[in-house]
Amino acid sequence: MMAGRGRLVPCVCLGLFGVLCWVWVSFASFPDDQLPLEALDAVDRGAFHPQSALSEMEFASISSYRGPGNSDRRRNKELPIILWWSGGLFPHFPGDTERIDCATSSCLVTSNRKVQLYKRTSSIIFYGTDFRAYEAPLPRLRHQTWALFHEESPMNNYVLSHAPGIRLFNYTATFRRESDYPLTLQWLPSLDYLLQPVAVPLQEKNRLRREGLAPVLYMQSHCDVPSDRDRYVKELMKYIKVDSYGKCLNNRPLPEHLEDTSTATGEEAGFMNFVARYKFHLALENGLCPDYMTEKLWRPLHQGCVPVYRGSAAVADWMPNDHSAVIIDNFPSPKALADFLKRLDENDDEYAKYLEFKNPSRITNTRLLEALETREWGVNDMTKPNYLNGFECYVCDQENARLAAERAYKKAPKKNQPPQPKMADNSHMGCPLPSPGYGDVQDLSADDGWLQIWPQDYWQSLDQAEGLESLIRHNESDPSLLWKHIQNIAVSRARGKH
Question: Domain of life here (predicted)?
């Protein structure tokens, strides 16, 4: 394998020693004569465009650097290979194969699925939203590990929220703090982002209130979601005025020049100025899971508005202090929440307490401060690498350490221990069964649209996770047999044998 021209790509390597690095990548190619014949089928890898923080990511470029713990001088043809199964997310360009030099070791990384069965392909990285049980690369080879990168909503793939699904993976990078490479604060660019001055002063917000602006903003155009947020907001609207501009529960039109930004996650100035006029922003995530927090939460904090939040049950762990967001689940009913918001709306001193975190001395959450200070990847920060390349290097260093341990054990089994198997568990991703946004599930009518979709999707995802686990256990090579295995499991369960 010949290395050609190269370039520097930002990377963070959390390997054996957690060292920050920038990696030099060289463009490489795989000669067909080094590939197994059964792996030469063409694969359709259509472009994949995730709706996530990745769409806003910027890439930095600085001079070449090799991690101080990396003394790897092997040629490309001697390196382990890491395959990005979701080719549209391959964090390199313009080629499909490159060399990376990380903190303690080096690898070849590729999006070329032809190498799936190649003996040097030691790990496969999957993008969670793009992972489908019926498209999994089978057979799963004993010498290969699987790695999961998933920072998007749990609604995108509930297969990963079940034990049989998540334990397919050896390494994880998810929004959960318990994952191997946590992405919990991916939507929070920096501490300075939180400390930005209040965009619209309280005096001006009060003036706008007197002119008829509602105290509460709702801006949502993705309506049919697992969190069932519209059901809650609809009930809340009975007790307090809410201006809703999106397609969901719409009661006010957007100004014409902002119509294209109704569902935007970007921060276009005109859109930001428009929403900053409101005292309270309804910030309800589309899926509920510990540590899943998006721009819906961080944007109002940035602007100096008060988020009225439902999403991560552990959100208080990440707030600037204990008085910066109104947590919906702390209130027994939408009416109780509305009464509380009305009191804040009418009391400037009490409302202003929710903005005190704009003063750095009032940020008391040491977990938040330490996480922002110590994370080795950045969000649109040209001085730090991005988390895609970071996780890639984490896998590279882990795999090289594993392979070295295997070689040492085979060479001297009495002197060396074999590498310990590593497996993800529910703490790396597991999200709960969707529940109604308001009321009890048993009170919903049988033809309720939400009821017909999301609870069923959750349990059907468990069937798929168990089916894929069965395929792998039986060493199947045809993923289309998934449905047969699911049926067999269902029959066994009905007979009390599963």
Answer: Eukaryota
Q: Which residues contact 173 (CB under 8 A, 6 or more apart)?
A: 147, 148, 149, 150, 151, 179, 180, 181, 182, 183, 387, 391, 394
- Per DSSP, 134 falls in state G
pLDDT digits (tens, 9 = 90+) for 284-295: 999 999 999 999
- Check if the beta carbon of residue 345 is closer than 8 Å to that of residue 215: yes
Give me the DSSP letters along 344-387: HHH-HHHHHHTTGGGSGGG---HHHHHHHHH-S--SS-TTS--H
pTM across the whole model: 0.87
Report how far residue 347's alpha carbon sits from residue 228's, in angstroms, rounded to the nearest whole number: 31
The CA R_g of the chain, rounded to the nearest whole Å, is: 25
Strands 97-101, 106-110: pairing kind: antiparallel
Q: Note the Cα 396 to chain centre separation in Å.
A: 20
- For the chain, domains (ranges, CATH) are 3-185+379-450 (no CATH), 191-372 (3.40.50.11660)
**Residue 200: both structure tokens together:** 């619209």
Peptide bond into 139 cis (omega under 30): yes
HSE-CB of 403 using CA atoms within 13 angstroms = 21
CA distance 343 to 132: 48
Task: Report pLDDT digits (tens) over 118-144.
Answer: 999 999 999 999 999 999 999 999 999
Q: What is the mean pLDDT of residues 84-105?
A: 90
The whole-angstrom separation of Cα 377 and Cα 362 is 26
Yes or no: say if 318 and 367 are a contact pair by the CB < 8 Å rule.
yes
CA distance 209 to 125: 51
